[in-house]
Amino acid sequence: MSVSVKCLQIIVSVLCFLMMILGIILLVLGIMAYNVYHTEVNANVSSISYMVVGSFIVAVAIFGLVGAICKNYCLLIIYSKLYEDGYKRAIETYHTEKNSKEFVDHAQKNFQCCGYVDYTEWAASFFDFKHGVLPMSCCVEGAKVCNINHNFHDVHKKRVCEYE
């Protein structure tokens, strides 16, 4: 096995393990909140939401972790598909949910990309895509505006999951 494949296997395993810990923490917090505030309706909904999100994160992390450790192609495809769906959902809720905006902006800045596949995925969001407007995280640092009609050369063209 080449060094780069082994390195990638270790990185994916560590990230999935950390993601699994985060999911377990959310799950435990949800259970604790439910046990303490189970009579209040709003707290009940929040605690159940924490449990559902935590369980989903743990499940996705297990697919990725087992897939990476065992080099199981099928599990890695499932992990990748779940991650892609989550990323696309975050793009759709970019303007309505603060966490989605922070997650997408962070990923696009760090990976120097725009969307999971490309910038056209922003048509699904409430962004003013019909006029070519994209989030600033889609463009190179220092760009004054991020618009495919005016400064397309500044828009990141790389997929979010690609590494150099």
From TrEMBL:
Any single GO CC term annotated in Swiss-Prot or TrEMBL for this entry: plasma membrane
Residue stretches spanning the membrane: 12-36, 48-70
Keywords: Membrane, Transmembrane, Transmembrane helix
Membrane topology (UniProt): Multi-pass membrane protein
Listed Pfam families: Tetraspanin
UniProt key word Membrane: yes
Domain of life: Eukaryota
Entry keyword annotation includes Membrane: yes
Subcellular location: Membrane
Main location, first listed in the record: membrane
Protein name (database record): Tetraspanin
Biological source species: Helobdella robusta (Californian leech)
